[in-house]
Design goal:
The complex is a heterodimer. Chain A contains three helices and two strands, in the order αααββ. Chain A is mainly α. Chain A has a domain at 7-45. By secondary structure, chain B is α/β, with parallel strands linked by helices. Chain B has a domain at 3-248: Amidase signature (AS) domain (Amidase signature (AS) enzymes, Alpha-Beta Complex), CATH 3.90.1300.10. Chain B is built from 16 helices and 15 strands. In chain B, the strands form three sheets. An eleven-stranded mixed beta sheet of chain B has the order 2-4-3-6-8-7-14-15-13-9-12, sandwiched between helices. A two-stranded antiparallel ribbon of chain B has the order 1-5. The longest helix of chain B has 18 residues, at 404-421. The chains are: A mainly alpha, B alpha/beta. The interface between A and B is large, with 57 and 87 residues.
Chain lengths: 106, 518
């Protein structure tokens, strides 16, 4: 069987995933992905009737076991400076990033 | 008996009654760690370093622990209530945030991340008097069944045979508990990540019902599957820990508003009158063999099958009714469906790591997009990359009906298997794993075969039901073997009744007295 994830499809996925990979890493990952897909295709043998529901999780949430939704109100963090301490680069309370790709409008 | 050998219940009893101080208990455990654990895992560390040691830890927070122990002792001296876990040492899988401490997920991308808040499960355990010794190792972002994928090496080793893996992803937790470095550990289970290492290391591992324990502060993998839960050396210690952790949490909308029973009292009720099912579908595994390209079905090793049938007989002697023909026909599809669902959720959760808000950022002369690519390329290991790419593929518009939506429907069928089973019985008794712990390097590199180690456990994550692995002796190679119970939603007390009854029924067995030779 041909690989379902071809080098072209793989390159597209890598671009979407924002990953920079070496050639060797790419080869390993593409092989593993295609092996996993062979396992996944085992699932295609399961007979499903059109009424089989999708389950976003196993346990059912009902009014009896669900917490009330929080009010949609923003609360200021007590110490935002502490949160920023973990950022790679900050200036004057803002996150600093490299130049955003852009196109100058005429 | 030394203090580090005591159960959590006994430590709390002695500390609360002033027979021993929390500080003395802590010192005993820190000495034990110094003796058996060896060097902690570090970024880029040598995987082969100190091969006779356990290497459970990434970060040992001894000073923080001393302050906590002294606070417990001060409370007791002042006549205040110190909590049900007073002075009980705890290790925490490094996938939970603990304020002011490194919270790495065993990944280079979070290696420098100091958490600004504490996970609810940790907060509740500490509020009950537990003393956190530190953060223990895991597979990177929990993605694995062996701990070999951790970016922090050396990775944990199995205390019963240090040439073998402890299982994963909560391998540091299971190894620490089995090696008497802590009586309790907090782990997470997305496809068996508490129960599999528990079985491999000969300890108790509990995955509660999805939503029984808050996920706030748990660095997410598969958000519809992840469950925090305890690892311990006895069922009663696991019950004690869950008692403290369980319950609703306004910071997690999936933490269910379901009352928490008195687990320790329920546990004592034994199994008389319980109907316990056996399913032939859990006595074989079906897996995809990457070498041959074929689906392979095989029966489980006789010693694992025998452990389950022996347990059934012992429970029957205590008054349980054993029902042997429970059909669970979709068990074999648990891993294929998991390959899809967990990858889609992981890909979504991993998008937040971009080198902007926290964690690692690559040195880059380029623009923002190049920085993203370099950061994620350099700092994610192979397993996160695999999950991101697969998640994006199977959820793409042109494939989602074939893969993602189908997997969600297969999950419905797995759930239906459990609903129908629990219409007939109160609990299911199954093997925990298809085999005992494998050799380090024996499976790593084959991401398909590695995943199939979870085949008998992942169905519980799909269905959301609780499950618990309990030690059941050793195989001919001297490696631990586990048995496992499933129960209906929010009925963890049934797991404790069955597990505790089995402990009582095997209390006189010689294997119960064995300890790892460290």
């Amino acid at each position: 069987m041909n690989d379902e994830i071809t080098p072209d499809v793989f390159a597209h996925l890598v671009d979407l995933a924002a990953l920079q990979l070496s050639a060797q890493e790419s080869e390993t990952l593409r092989r593993q992905l295609n092996n996993q897909l062979k396992s996944i295709r085992e699932m295609l043998a399961v007979p499903l009737d059109e009424n089989t529901p999708v389950a976003s999780r196993g346990v059912e949430y009902t009014p009896q076991n669900s917490p009330a939704l929080r009010r949609d109100v923003a609360h200021p963090h007590p110490a935002p400076a502490r949160l920023l301490q973990g950022a790679p680069e900050v200036a004057e309370g803002y996150l600093v990033v490299p130049e955003t790709p852009h196109q100058d409008l005429k | 008996m030394e203090l580090f050998e005591l159960s959590a219940l006994e430590i709390a009893r002695r500390v609360r009654s002033k027979q021993v101080s929390a500080r003395a208990v802590l010192d005993s455990h820190l000495e034990r760690i110094a003796r058996v654990d060896g060097q902690a895992g570090t970024l880029g560390g040598d995987p082969q370093a100190e091969p006779q040691k356990i290497h459970a830890f990434i970060t040992l927070t001894a000073d923080r622990a001393r302050a906590q122990a002294e606070a417990v002792d001060a409370k007791i001296a002042a006549g205040q209530e110190p909590g049900p876990l007073a002075g009980v040492p705890l290790t925490v899988k490094d996938i939970f945030t603990v304020e002011g401490t490194p919270s790495t997920a065993a990944s280079k991308i979070l290696a420098n991340f100091i958490a600004p808040y504490t996970a609810t499960a940790v907060e509740r355990l500490e509020a009950a008097g537990a003393i956190t010794l530190g953060k223990v190792n895991l597979d990177e972002f929990t993605y694995g069944s062996s701990n070999e994928s951790s970016a922090f090496q050396p990775a944990p080793r199995n205390p019963w045979d240090t040439s073998r893996v402890p299982g994963g992803s909560s391998g540091g937790s299971a190894a620490a508990v089995a090696a008497y470095e802590s009586p309790l550990s907090l782990g997470t289970d997305t496809a068996g990540s508490i129960r599999l290492p528990a079985a491999y290391c000969g300890v108790v591992g509990l995955k509660p019902t999805y939503g029984r324990v808050s996920r706030y502060g748990l660095i997410a993998f598969g958000s519809s599957l992840d469950c925090p839960g305890p690892l311990a050396r006895s069922v009663s210690d696991a019950a004690l820990a869950l008692q403290v952790m369980a319950g609703p949490d306004p910071r997690d909308a999936t933490a269910a508003t379901v009352a928490t029973p008195d687990y320790l009292a329920e546990m004592e009720k034994d199994v008389r009158g319980l109907k316990i099912g056996l399913s032939p579908d859990y006595f074989r595994i079906t897996y995809f063999d990457a070498q041959s390209g074929e689906l392979v079905e095989r029966a489980l090793p006789p010693e694992i099958q025998n452990a389950v049938t022996d347990a059934a007989q012992r429970l029957a002697l205590r008054g349980a009714e054993i029902v042997e023909d429970i059909a669970m026909p979709h068990t074999q599809y648990g891993i294929p469906a998991y390959f899809v669902i967990s990858r889609v959720e992981a890909a979504s959760n991993l998008h937040r790591y971009d080198g902007v808000k926290y964690g690692y950022r690559a040195q880059s002369a380029g623009d923002l997009r190049e920085m993203y690519r370099k950061t994620r390329g350099e700092a994610f290991g192979l397993q996160p990359k695999l999950r991101i790419l697969m998640g994006m593929y199977v959820s793409a518009a042109q494939y989602s009906e074939q893969y993602y939506n189908r997997a969600l429907k297969v999950r419905s069928l797995i759930r239906r298997d459990f609903d129908e089973a629990f219409g007939r019985v109160d609990a299911l008794l199954t093997p925990s794993t298809p085999d005992a712990a494998f050799a380090i390097g024996g499976v790593y590199g084959d991401s398909v075969l590695m995943q199939y180690a979870d085949q008998l456990l992942v169905t519980g994550n799909h269905a959301g039901v609780p499950g618990m692995s309990v030690p059941a002796g050793f195989n001919a190679a001297g490696l631990p073997v586990g048995i496992h119970f499933f129960a209906p939603d929010y009925r963890e007390e049934i797991l404790f009744r069955a597990g505790y009854a089995y402990e009582q029924a095997t209390a006189a067995e010689a294997w119960r007295a064995k300890k790892p030779a460290l």
